UniProtKB/TrEMBL annotation:
It comes from the Bacteria. Residues 28-140 form the Aldehyde oxidase/xanthine dehydrogenase a/b hammerhead domain. Pfam families: Ald_Xan_dh_C, MoCoBD_1, MoCoBD_2. This is Aldehyde oxidase/xanthine dehydrogenase a/b hammerhead domain-containing protein. One of its GO terms (molecular function) is iron ion binding. The lineage of its organism: Bacteria, Bacillati, Actinomycetota, Actinomycetes, Mycobacteriales.
């Protein structure tokens, strides 16, 4: 069941349930993804990967591989640029950790790149890869984060660059992030109750349906055309140019729809520059598509061990809150530092606590690199915090919902947005509404009764909840900062009265560009189907940083709205010329420009269709009706969610099933309920997988990933989701957002796992502090194994 806010009579397109414009094309297989691109003379690429978690490349012999008919080019570390590069799209080069090499001369995890082959078929390329002879000098590996920071541990990296600054490491801690307010020791001294717990959250794979793929076509003029599974065409161009050591202008990245991403395509991987090097060397187009195993090993959520210590007064008022996190970034930095910064920001911004302290250690290990994943550090912080809050409430004898209502941050409060360097203030907040209404809908009063059920029953029921927040983008007041946040749009009116929108924003399958079309249509008085969203590239589009951080609607959508308002001004000015009226007295509605204001008795006000305006502008040579807008965001607009969940636990098998979900969200004005509901359902599925099923397992002896395929790595599917799924929205309006809207994409994922953990604890009478909640862990908690 889904209950949405009523559509305001003020709007014609905003708040309406408009199907995604690409839905039919996707369902019928007509929409082209990167993997569907085929170019004349295109070669296929295969990569030789290290079988060792830590090894120096002593010798590579490619003689036999080159002799195989059909092999056109082979590259090793000797052919690749020797300078390190960074992978993150949203960071300026000056703030980006640089520890990646296109092809390193030292393998740092099982699967690290050793060489790459381009050949006339995938089969020939694979045969050539098998023919390459490599002599390795195996090194001791650091496969566990706590072993990696112990004295005498083998060092994964000895040097990392931050911009142009060289950092010589003396261990495997990339960075230690510290944040704090007040006096933490004083806070604990004032507390009536102090509790401490340690939680472990796993390495989760993003699992987009589409495998990573890149196509590179070398032009005769030396430029490169690139199609890639990426969340940012401009970010990819920048990072590829820096990795290859060539000018940005030599690369043109084309916008393509994605078959899911969830952060897996948030950064550049090694594959894009490898494909570019092989294309340039062979002088032919190339295509590299990872196997499912390669794709699953290329990125994941950062696993972490989190220790929480919290002090409260007897009435439930929080006075001290402390978190120490050990975050495993894998073999390369990628977004490890920024994820850890965000963990600190999310932790310190959930509740009003005068004394808070966060320490986060970012640790290198010889395991596959981790990267951004929906929530970007938020689930790693949220699961411990929300579990911890329930435990604290139980010890104080306070209802968990009431505990949260007494302590949540609210309108007017400051919060950390995306880490320690960005502070913003809450301008709209529906937390109280979603908590109280969610409790009513789930039947929260039954929770106390379920806690008393005999633990000898075969099936135990439990009800739990968790709440979360996230920011809509990464905007901040400072013009120069350590994160980029600006967007651009171009809108052109066509001679038939339709509008063409150009934006570099990537649609990852969520339909965010459909929301942009609704925003533009609302401003210009058009039907949604009269707004054409162009497919573009970096040559012809204004910069947009990346599709991430719940920014698509709030940041890029606002820029599209501002651009449409410029076009509206031009249309009204031209309509005024034609109708001999003041442009300020003209409104655009229903595809027409209508004169408003007082009229002669009995006479209707004159109007003209937008198509007539555009045709007249052409015939009279007034010029193309178009505008552009490029602007950075200066605020972030927090959006809030909660999930109330009912579960059943089989005490004989340890299996957990989710029976009912109530999902409340404060997203401001809903632009399109279809899209927002899809985000909430999808985010919940990933959160439930995080809680119950998903964990990338790395053998602590060999460094090999044990379950890099869907036979052995299980995710939540539509068949696992419960049918009793109730969605509702708070009645809030965010003045800084387009038509009052905020984001939702990240927060839809943040609260679900903690809610599941608390529901299971209600059923079992004990909190399990390590995810996922596998049958073995459940049975162990019940004392049955």
């Amino acid at each position: 069941m889904t209950e949405t806010m009523p559509v305001s009579a003020e709007y014609h397109n905003i708040g309406r349930r408009v199907p995604k414009f690409d839905a039919v094309h996707k369902a019928t297989g007509q929409l082209k993804f990167v993997g569907d691109i085929r170019l004349p003379r295109m070669l296929d690429i295969k990569i030789l990967r290290s079988p060792h978690p830590h090894a120096e490349i002593v010798r590579i012999d490619i003689t036999r591989a080159l002799a195989i008919p059909g092999v056109k080019a082979i590259i090793t570390h000797e052919d690749a640029p020797a300078h390190p590069y960074g992978r993150e799209f949203a960071l300026p080069p000056e703030y980006m950790p640089r520890d990646n090499f296109v092809i390193p001369d030292k393998a740092r995890y099982v699967g690290d790149v050793v060489a790459a082959v381009a050949a006339t078929s995938v089969e020939i390329a694979a045969k050539a890869v098998a023919a390459i002879e490599v002599e390795y000098r195996k090194l001791r590996a650091a496969l566990d984060p706590f072993e990696a920071i112990a004295p005498g541990a083998p060092q994964v990296h000895r040097t990392v660059f931050w911009g142009d600054e060289r950092d010589d490491l003396s261990g495997n801690i990339l960075r230690t992030v510290k944040m704090g307010v007040g006096d933490i020791d004083k806070g604990f001294a004032e507390a009536d109750l102090v509790i401490e717990n340690t939680f472990a959250v796993p390495k989760q794979q993003q699992s987009p349906m589409e495998r990573r793929c890149i196509v590179v076509d070398p032009r005769p003029d030396g430029r490169l055309d690139v199609w890639a599974t990426t969340q940012s065409i401009h970010g990819l161009r920048h990072n590829m140019a820096r990795a290859l050591g060539i000018p940005y202008s030599r690369i043109n990245v084309h916008q393509v729809f994605l078959g899911g991403a969830f952060g897996a395509r948030l950064d550049m991987n090694v594959d894009e520059p490898i494909a570019a090097l092989l294309a340039m060397k062979a002088g032919q187009p190339v295509r590299l598509q990872l196997t499912r195993e390669e794709d699953m090993m290329s990125t994941s959520r950062h696993p972490a061990t989190v220790t929480l210590k919290t002090g409260a007064r007897r009435d439930g008022t929080l006075v001290a809150h402390q978190m120490v996190a050990h975050v495993d970034t894998g073999a390369y930095a990628c977004s490890g530092e920024w994820v850890t910064k965000c963990m600190g920001g999310w932790f310190m911004s959930m509740y009003r606590v005068p004394n808070q302290d966060f320490t986060g250690h970012v640790i290198y290990t010889n395991t596959p690199p981790a990267a951004g994943f929906r929530g970007f550090g938020n689930p790693q912080a949220n699961v411990p915090v929300e579990s911890h809050m329930d435990m604290l409430a139980d010890k104080l004898g306070i209802d968990p919902v009431e505990m949260r209502l007494r302590n949540y941050i609210r309108e007017g409060d400051a919060y950390y947005a995306q880490g320690p360097n960005v502070i913003d203030y809450i301008k709209s907040c529906g937390v109280e509404e979603i908590l109280t209404e969610g409790a009513r809908r789930i039947g929260w009063h039954r929770r106390a009764q379920l806690a008393q059920q005999p633990k000898t029953q075969k099936v135990l029921k439990g009800i739990g909840m968790g709440r979360a927040f996230h920011t809509s983008g990464c905007g901040q007041a400072n013009e120069v900062s350590d994160i980029l946040e600006y967007a651009g749009s171009i809108i052109k009116m066509n001679e038939d009265g339709t509008a063409s929108l150009t934006t570099a924003l990537i649609d990852m399958g969520t339909g965010n560009l459909m929301g942009h079309a609704q925003i533009v249509a609302e401003v210009l008085g058009l039907r949604v189907e009269d707004v054409i969203v162009n497919t573009t590239d970096t040559d012809s589009s204004p910069y947009d940083v990346v599709t991430h951080a719940s920014r698509s609607t709030y940041v890029s959508g606002m820029v599209a709205k501002l651009c449409a308002e410029k076009v509206r001004t031009i249309l009204c000015e031209m309509a005024g010329r034609i109708l001999e009226a003041d442009p300020g007295d003209i409104v655009l509605v229903g595809g027409r420009a209508q004169v408003t204001g007082p009229s002669v008795a009995g006479a209707s006000q004159p109007s003209i269709s937008i198509m007539e305006i555009t045709r007249t502008a052409q015939m009279r040579q007034w010029g193309t009706i178009m505008a552009e807008e490029s602007r950075r965001a200066v605020t972030t607009a927090s959006h809030f969610t909660c999930k109330f969940i009912e579960v059943s636990v089989d005490t004989e098998t340890g299996h957990i099933s989710i029976d009912k979900v109530v999902a409340g969200s404060d997203v401001g004005q809903v632009i399109n309920p279809v899209l927002v509901e899809g985000q909430i359902h999808g985010g919940a599925a990933q959160a439930f997988g995080y809680a119950l099923l998903e964990e990338i397992q790395v053998d602590r002896e060999t460094g090999r990933t044990l379950n890099a395929d869907y036979l052995n790595y299980k995710i939540f599917t539509s068949r696992d989701m419960c049918r009793d799924f109730d969605v509702f929205f708070a009645a809030t309006h965010e003045d800084s957002g387009p038509f009052g809207a905020k984001g939702i994409g990240e927060a839809a994922n943040n609260d679900g796992a903690g809610a599941v953990v608390n529901a299971v604890a209600n059923a079992l009478g004990v909190h399990i502090k390590e995810l996922p909640l596998t049958p073995e862990r459940v049975l162990k908690a019940l004392g049955k194994i």
